[in-house]
Design goal:
By secondary structure, this protein is an alpha+beta fold. It is built from one helix and ten strands, in the order H-E-E-E-E-E-E-E-E-E-E. It has one domain: Immunoglobulin-like. The strands form two sheets. Strands 1, 2, 5, 6 and 10 form a five-stranded antiparallel beta sheet that branches. A hairpin with a 4-residue loop joins strand 7 and strand 8.
């Protein structure tokens, strides 16, 4: 014979768990506030490639949203970096890769903007002579 109390409790419990799981999946990710942002562009071969390194810091582990900005040209793109390596009381997140460059004849400047949606940190401007990132 079925125990209606147990059946109703199990069904209600499963429905609540499914609702909470669906809400968690639909909610945007919670970002951590950035403490600092740094960008380096090295080994510049223009036209050609360069090495890009982005470092962000936070007080707790999590994700920081970053955007790449060209001075006078606006936001070129954005990504998310996870700060998960503990160093001297802060959490570090890093991204590195190769970027394509094209000759321009003038100097271009770039920086990183790190945010959690409320707090924002900006890196110093990094200049590339006679070159620009290919976007």
């Amino acid at each position: 014979m079925f125990n209606m109390r147990k059946l109703v409790a199990a069904t209600l419990g499963a429905a609540i768990l499914a609702t909470v799981a669906a809400a968690a999946m639909a909610a945007p990710p919670a970002y951590v506030p950035p403490k600092g942002a740094k960008m380096k562009i090295k080994n510049v071969n223009c036209p050609g490639n360069a090495d890009l390194e982005i470092i962000v810091w936070s007080k707790k582990p999590g994700q920081v949203k970053i955007s790449l900005e060209r001075k006078g040209g606006g936001i070129l793109g954005s990504d998310i970096i996870t700060t998960d390596t503990r160093v001297h009381g802060y959490y570090k997140g890093a991204y590195g890769g190769t970027i394509a460059l094209a000759s321009t004849g003038y100097k271009t400047k770039y920086r990183i903007i790190a945010t959690d949606g409320y707090k924002t940190r900006k890196s110093k401007w990094v200049a590339i002579k006679s070159c620009a990132l290919v976007t």
